[in-house]
Design a protein that fits this description.
Blueprint lengths: L2 H14 L4 E8 L2 E7 L8 E6 L2 E6 L8 E5 L3 H4 L5 H8 L6 H13 L6 H11 L3 H4 L2 H9 L16 H22 L9
Helix pairs in contact: 1-8, 3-8, 4-5
């Protein structure tokens, strides 16, 4: 995915969480559950659970379409750190065949005339202009490309993380880490006068 596009998408998702508050739902020993939500509503709620087994993220605003993503063997302290968008994706998300990645991959093939024939570049570029329904079907994309070349699909593949999910996960983690830091910061002592 183009880094600039991904960065802009992540910034937009971060704006969606602006104004959210962090509330403690459960704090029992090594089990901690937090709601990241808009004040006064459960809309756009994210629930983050931290247990000795790992981290689970669920709710309205979650990275994966399944509405839950989790990572074993990671801690609250780790999640509150400064974590990169690719690193988070690697830890929480599943790679797959995603239309945005396929389109970008085909455009890159189409632009690489040093590595591919003009016929392959043209076919890849034309295929990149196809509807999402066409690009969502790996067999159809492979069939189109294989008409022009014996492509080695092991060396180059559009499999990757869904950009929207990467942006969502990064926005959730960044917002949570910021609010948790504010929530856990020592409160100034009140002095009686």
């Amino acid at each position: 995915m183009d880094v600039g596009k991904l960065t802009n998408l992540a910034r937009e998702r971060l704006k969606d969480l602006d104004g959210h508050v962090l509330e403690v739902v459960c704090d029992i020993g090594r089990v901690k559950v937090y709601n990241l939500r808009r004040p006064g509503t459960r809309n756009m709620l994210v629930q983050l659970s931290f247990t000795p087994e790992g981290i689970a993220i669920q709710g309205d605003f979650t990275p994966e379409e399944t509405a839950t993503c989790s990572k074993r063997s990671q801690s609250l302290e780790w999640f509150c750190g400064i974590l990169g968008i690719d690193y988070l994706a690697e830890k929480f998300l599943s790679k797959g065949w995603h239309v945005d990645n396929v389109r970008e991959w085909l455009l890159n093939i189409g632009a690489d005339s040093d590595a591919h024939s003009v016929e392959v570049c043209s076919a890849a570029y034309d295929l990149a202009q196809s509807d999402d329904e066409v690009l969502a079907d790996p067999a159809q994309v492979r069939g189109e490309i294989d008409q022009f070349t014996q492509w080695d699909w092991c060396d180059s593949s559009p499999h990757g993380y869904k950009p929207q999910e990467m942006a969502d996960l990064w926005a959730i983690q960044s917002t949570f880490a910021k609010l948790h830091g504010e929530h856990m910061a020592p409160k100034p002592a009140k002095h009686e006068t």
